[in-house]
Structure formats: structure tokens, C-alpha cells
Predict the structure of Fatty acid desaturase domain-containing protein.
Amino acid sequence: MPPNSTQEKCIEPSEATMEKLVPPQAAPREYKIVYRNIITFGYGHLAAMYGLYLAVTAACWSTIFFNYILFVLAAIGVTAGAHRLWTHRAYKAKMPLQIILMVMNTLAFQNTAIDWVRDHRMHHRYSDTDADPHNATRGFFYSHVGWLLVRKHEEVKKRGQFIDMSDIYANPVLRFQKKYALPFIGSVCYLLPTIIPMYFWGETLNVAWHMCLFRYVMNLHITFLVNSAAHLWGYKPYDEHIQPVQNEAVSFIAFGEGFHNYHHVYPWDYRTAELGNNKLNVSTLFIDFFAKIGWAYDLKTVPQNIIDARAERTGDGTDLWGRRKDN
């Protein structure tokens, strides 16, 4: 080192020095539009609408049924895979089940699972503030899809470094998906679902491609409803002081993910709902099946007495189905 010189120390930023974000919070901001996303989302939705038109008019029943099966598999790849297994570590899965869930998650294509987990862990840590990637305080459209059409808020960028992702980066299954994202996602989500109907039952390219996009866009909106509707409209039996709500309609179409007030109070519960609410919670039934054959294990739940005590202390006076307890 030259004489009389000093070496500057690299000081790691600390979250303790930052302003505490208390939900609901949304400071004034400038929206920087991502035009590439506007174009791709615009095309995807127009193509999906045409796919719906073809489904109604062309009576392509084999292709409709095929895409419905893919729709269910993709949804569970998000709910039981990216969400309950990898984000919240609500249960553990042996390698075969992890591979199955990774392929199913790839079929949904909501970025790679690594990206999905990072965003969702931020959503829980900073829920309904500017460090929440899809801050519901900004309204339905922003939390539903608008957040994907603009640049990330600066708070998301600054505080993302405080999210522990070491377990995710250590997972070889998720590293594989990330490393080969472009060819793997392109093949699993788009190419194969288009080619299979054409090869096996002579579907036209026009119908196969547009039905594929209809299925894909529907999967997106189901997940988006958990970010938007399940933070805006519903009841709060477990904690009336937070924005997430119980929304039965979302639970029905999102395979059990709409019991959101419970989930934000107890994010580590593999059921994401009291007692599983299995009438609407297909993802819980999926995990339960693999637990029976030994591929899923260490399923985390919350004791009923703890649930009842929390509901009594901070809930809005409704039961898990939204009925007034005093009725």
C-alpha cells in the first residue's frame, strides 16, 4: 500500500438503519413502465381470448381436456411447490417429489421458482408496504398485474438483500431450473403442450397454440388473485389488524390459497388453512397423498388451541368460514 494512504472499509448496509415500514403503506412514486412486458402481456391476453373463442366454437374436446389437466398440474406446482414447500418450508419433500413439483412449477412459468420464492418471502416480510413486490395498498390492478408492468419499487430493491435465500440456492433441483430456464421453460410450458395435441390427435397448430396460451394466462390470473383479491375483500377471523383476508372464491379457484388471513398469521402451516379446509384445498390433499407414500414428511401444523386463542384475541369475530361466532 502506498505511504500515507488509507483503505476504505466496505460497510454492509443494515436494515436496522432503515425506516420501519408499517402496513398499509404506499408512498408517492413514479411508475416506470416496462414496455416489453406490456407487449408480451398484451399479446398473451389477446391470444388467450382467441383460444377461449376456439374452445367454444371448435368443440376441440380432447385439447380442452388436455389443457385442463395441465392447468391443474401447473397450479399445484405453484401452490404445493414454490409456495408451501420452497418459500415457507412448511413440509419437506424427497427428491422424486421435488423433481415432479419443479416440472409442474415450470409448466406454470411464473419466472423460475428461485425468483418466485424471493418475491414471496419479501411479500410476507414486508406485506402491504412499498417493499412488498405487489403492494395491495396500491389497489387491485397494481397488486394483480400492474406490478409486473413497471420497474420494481426502490424499497423492493434495497430490502431484497435482507431475504435469506441460502436454502434455495443450495437446492440442486431449483438450480437446474434456473440454469436451463430458457430452453426448459420454453419446452415444458409452451412447446410440448402445443406439439402433443398436434401429434397424438391431429389438432391444428392454430387451436393447439392458442389453447396453450389460454391455459397459461388463466394460471397466471389465479395466482394474481391471491395477491389482489385475497388482500382486499373478505373476512379476518385470525387477525383483523392485517390486510390479508379469507376469500372463499379465491380458495376455490386457487386450490386452497385464498384462506389468506390464516396464512399470513401462520405461514409455516402446510395446509395454509385451519383444519386444511379440504373442501376447497386441493393442494393440501395433494401433499397429504404424498405424505402417505412417504415422499412428503415433517408436515408443519398449528395446534387448534393456539389457533382458537389467536382468533379470540385478534380476530374479527367470524369463524373460519366467515360466519359470526355469536350467531
